Each structure stands twice: as C-alpha cells, then as structure tokens.
Amino acid sequence: MGDDWMQLWVNAAQMKAADQYTIQKLGVPSLELMEHAAQACVQVLEDEKVDLSHVCVVCGSGNNGGDGFAIARILQNNRYSVETFCVGNPEHYTEETQEQMHRLQECGGKITYGMPQEDSYSVVIDAVFGVGLSRKVEGRYRQVIEQMNRMRGTKFAVDIPSGLSATTGCILGCAFKADYTVTFQLKKIGLELSQGRTMAGRVIVPDIGISTDSICEDQEIVRTAGKDIYRKMLPDRPEDSNKGTYGRLLVIAGSKGMAGAAYLNAHAAYMTGAGLVRIYTSSDNREILQTLLPEAIVTTYEEYNKEELLSLLTWADSVCIGSGLGMSRLSEKILKTVIEYVKVPCLIDADGLNLLAENKNYLNQMAERRFVITPHMKEMSRLTGTPVEELKADRIQILKDFISRYRITCVLKDSRTLIASEEKGIRMNLTGNSAMAKAGSGDVLAGVISGWMVQEKEAEDAAELGTYIHGLSGDLAKFEKGVYSVMARDLIEYISKALMKLEEE
Ligand SMILES: NC(=O)C1=CN([C@@H]2O[C@H](COP(=O)(O)OP(=O)(O)OC[C@H]3O[C@@H](n4cnc5c(N)ncnc54)[C@H](OP(=O)(O)O)[C@@H]3O)[C@@H](O)[C@H]2O)[C@@H](O)CC1
Ligand SMILES: [K+]
C-alpha cells in the first residue's frame, strides 16, 4: 500500500454493520469468518513467537467467546497444551459460540466452567468480550478480568481487550491489559483513543474476509490520511515569488507577561512559510518580542482601539488570536471585534476560547468555515458545557454535533487529536507523543495552522496539515532530545526537519 490511503477507524456499530453486510448480503457464513478470525490469531501467536507451551483461553458467551473456543481447538490440533475456560452466561451463548464449543469438545478439548485458578500459563488469551461489550464490567466478570491481569503469562486480546469500549477507548469498569491485540479487518477507534493505546499493546489487523464495501463511503467514519496526502497539501513555492505571495498573518496574542505565547505563534507561523507576521500585543511585550523575533512587525496596544484593530484586520490575510491573550475586559473587546469584523480565515486558541465559552453568543456569529478553533479537552468542555469525563466518553458525537451546529473547523487536542469539519468529517492525527505535553506546545500548533491558513490553505486542510506537521516535529524532537526534555521552542526548530522529511519521502 502506498501512502495515499485513508485509514478507517470504526466504532462498534460500524464494525457490526460491516460484519452483517458480509454475512447477509455477500452470503459469507458467520462461522467461516470466525474460523478465519481464529486462524489469524493463531498465526500471529506463532509469528510473534509467543510462548505457547501452556495456553489459557478465557471465553465469554458472545461471538468473541466463539473466537476463543476456535483458537483453543486450532492450538490443540497443533499439539499445544491448552486449557479453556468458559466464564459466559450459558443462557446467552450465541449459535456460533455453541457450535465452536461443540467443535472443541469433539476434538477432545475440555472446557472448564469458571475462571482459571492457577497461574502456570505461558500465555493468557482474552476472548471474554469483543465489540459487543454493552455495559460496565462488574461482579464476576470484573473478578475474571482482574485475575487475568494478575497472571504472569503474555497477555493476548482477541479483537479488543475485554472491558475496553471499541467506540470510545474508555475502560468500562475494568479492562484486560494486553501485550498484543489482534483486531479483525478494521481498526477499532477505541484502540487509539483515551486508554485504548495503553490497554491494547501491539495491535495487529489481519484480513479475515469482512467486506468494507458497505462502509468505506460512510462519512461518519473517522479517517487518517496517509503521508502522500499531506505531501500534496504542501503549498508550491515558485521562484518568482516574494513575501507578499505567502500572506500576511496577524497574531493577536500575549497579555502583559505572556509574550512567550505570541512569540511561539509567530515564530511557528514563519517556520511553515508565512510571508509576513505582525504581532498585535500588549505594549509591555514590545521590547522582548522585538528581541526574540526581529522578523516580526510588532504593533502594541495599551487600551482598546477599535479603529487600529479594524485597520489591522483589513491588512491581514489571516488572523490567529487568543494564545496568552488573558481574560480581561480588554481582551474580550478585542475578540468580539475580531469575530464581528474579520473577513479572512481566523484561528482562535487558548484564552480566546475561554472568552468564547463565557460569551457563547459569539459562537453563533462564527457560523462560517473560515474559523478554526483549537481547544484542548478542558477548553472544549467549557465551550460545550459537557464535563471532561463525559466528553472523553463521547467525544466523536459531541464533536460532530458541535461542528454541525456552529459550522467551524474544530481541532480537539488530546493525546490523539481529532480535526473536525463539515466538509471533511472527522480526521484523527497519529503524529505526536507525550514529550509534547508541555506549556507552549498549543501556541506552536496555533502558529503552524495559521501559517498554512495564510498560505491560502482551506481552513480544514490547514488544520489537518498543521496538526500533522506539529506532531511530526514533536516526534523528531523526541527522537533526538528524549521524552522528557523537548521544549515548545524545540517543536518550532523541528518544523523545518518535519517539512523536509515530508517533502523527501
Ligand atoms: N459474525 C460476526 O459478527 C463475527 C464476530 N466476531 C467476533 O465476535 C465479536 C462480537 O461478538 P458479539 O456481538 O456476540 O459480542 P461479544 O463481544 O462477544 O459480547 C457479547 C456478549 O457479552 C455480554 N456482555 C456484554 N457486555 C457485558 C458486560 N459488561 N457484562 C457482562 N456481560 C456482557 C453479552 O451479554 P448480554 O448482553 O447478552 O447479557 C453477550 O453475551 C467480535 O468482537 C469478534 O471477536 C468474529 O468472529 C468475526 C465474525
Ligand atoms: K477480547
């Protein structure tokens, strides 16, 4: 596969729709898919050289359990020592699961009803719950999963670690902590969001013959673009150009003592190729900014000056407002004026978002695609009035509702950042790492996105490309500086390396 692909990230319902289409419309028997699923798991266990000297398989009553019984049979037929435990509710066995139990027993396999009692296994295979997990794990099931987590063997999850929501990545009560997860056909978005990455370990995605035809056009599905797509988004830089060709960016940032935010915005925008950056900031920041970034024009204010602001808005090809802006009445007036009068693409970050949250009526005035907002989870929580925990548990839906209501591009920052617009749906960014979880990182992101906006990228493309490049800079910085020592200014330094890497590949 080249790099011009779109990776799909499905939730539980979308996965079930693909299963059902394959079974009902294409006529592939469910049991055949289950056999492929089990064979794929055994193949991975063998390829990865997992110690199969003493295997423990723990199965539930749904089809995930059915996969587990089939895995047990195949391993046993391959002459491994296997012990199989059934912890599911006998009243809820699916037809396929019953058939797989029967097939295992026919091959001489023994099924123990209840949880494993000892800890002598080289590998523990979790087939308790898959994408059918529908509620919090409690009682006996909780005990089973906790017991499996305590066992010393390699932990192997079938389709998804039991207890992890395939849709949100949240742990519902408790979850299996896997070293490997073999997830069938399509990556479940829950393996990437929230606790998903921590619980899933290494994720392998075998093709088991489930057709994706029915869902690949579905605009509701979250996608990640391959590198080629980002490379093609990079703007041309013709020889016969000048600074005017690459746009004039107005950065409105930095209240008293917060010059750093304005500096990071502006410097990051220059590093992406912006032609000219003007910082509009509190007068206290003039000297420091002129010293830190002589390439920027610095215009300062002491009090609200509507005329000056309007003339700057006329000058600008794009605006980036909010980083370190503060929450004063003055900041509020500036933001209100910008929202009311700006005619060019405009990004709102940080304090700009906190001010928006306090003045939600401004949001209603923004209903045009030229606005990009870059909230982290807490800022999004303030904007939507949804507590952070609820937001984490339902972020995709909340994001969808938000953009369809306000018709703006929203970059929802988290360990996996989502970029949402009506035009392109929801995209998940896969670059970036925990070294970037530091003050100033968001200011750099706002600068990078604004840098693309001012070079005439559509707001949603600028947001996606900017998030990708920002994360890639972080990945390169971490590689050379280590996970603890990456500073926001390093992210800026590594933008050039990230861009060169993307251009070269
Ligand atoms: N043909 C196919 O579709 C294919 C599917 N495949 C495999 O099937 C998996 C999906 O199977 P599935 O839909 O049967 O659901 P699954 O994940 O086994 O869970 C349902 C069971 O769990 C129970 N339960 C749920 N939550 C619970 C809780 N908190 N606490 C307690 N119980 C709870 C629920 O109980 P109930 O709600 O009925 O009381 C029910 O018994 C998928 O991940 C993949 O591995 C592959 O073989 C490829 C072909
Ligand atoms: K599982």
UniProtKB/TrEMBL annotation:
Alphabetical list of CDD domains matching this protein: YXKO-related
Residues reported to bind AMP: K413, D414, S415, R416, T417, G442
Binding site for K(+): N64, D126, S162
Family annotation (Gene3D superfamilies): 3.40.1190.20, YjeF N-terminal domain (3.40.50.10260)
PROSITE patterns: YJEF_C_2 (PS01050), YJEF_C_3 (PS51383), YJEF_N (PS51385)
The enzyme's E.C. designation: 4.2.1.136, 5.1.99.6
Annotated (6S)-NADPHX binding sites: 63-67, 130-136, 141, 159, 261, 324, 376, 443
Cofactor: how bound: Binds 1 potassium ion per subunit.
Superkingdom as given in the UniProt entry: Bacteria
Required cofactor(s): K(+); Mg(2+)
Signal peptide: none
Ranges of residues in domain YjeF N-terminal: 15-216
Keyword entries, A-Z: ATP-binding, Isomerase, Lyase, Metal-binding, Multifunctional enzyme, NAD, NADP, Nucleotide-binding, Potassium
Residue ranges occupied by any YjeF C-terminal domain in the UniProt entry: 226-502
Reaction(s) catalysed by this chain's protein: (6R)-NADPHX = (6S)-NADPHX; (6S)-NADPHX + ADP = AMP + phosphate + NADPH + H(+); (6R)-NADHX = (6S)-NADHX; (6S)-NADHX + ADP = AMP + phosphate + NADH + H(+)
Function: Bifunctional enzyme that catalyzes the epimerization of the S- and R-forms of NAD(P)HX and the dehydration of the S-form of NAD(P)HX at the expense of ADP, which is converted to AMP. This allows the repair of both epimers of NAD(P)HX, a damaged form of NAD(P)H that is a result of enzymatic or heat-dependent hydration.
Family matches, as HAMAP family: NADHX_dehydratase (MF_01965), NADHX_epimerase (MF_01966)
Alphabetical list of NCBIfam families matching this protein: yjeF_cterm (TIGR00196), yjeF_nterm (TIGR00197)
Family, similarity comment: Belongs to the NnrD/CARKD family. Belongs to the NnrE/AIBP family.
Assembly and binders: Homotetramer.
PANTHER family in UniProt: ATP-DEPENDENT (S)-NAD(P)H-HYDRATE DEHYDRATASE (PTHR12592:SF0), ATP-DEPENDENT (S)-NAD(P)H-HYDRATE DEHYDRATASE FAMILY MEMBER (PTHR12592)
Official protein name in the record: Bifunctional NAD(P)H-hydrate repair enzyme
Biological source species: Dorea amylophila
Lineage: Bacteria, Bacillati, Bacillota, Clostridia, Lachnospirales
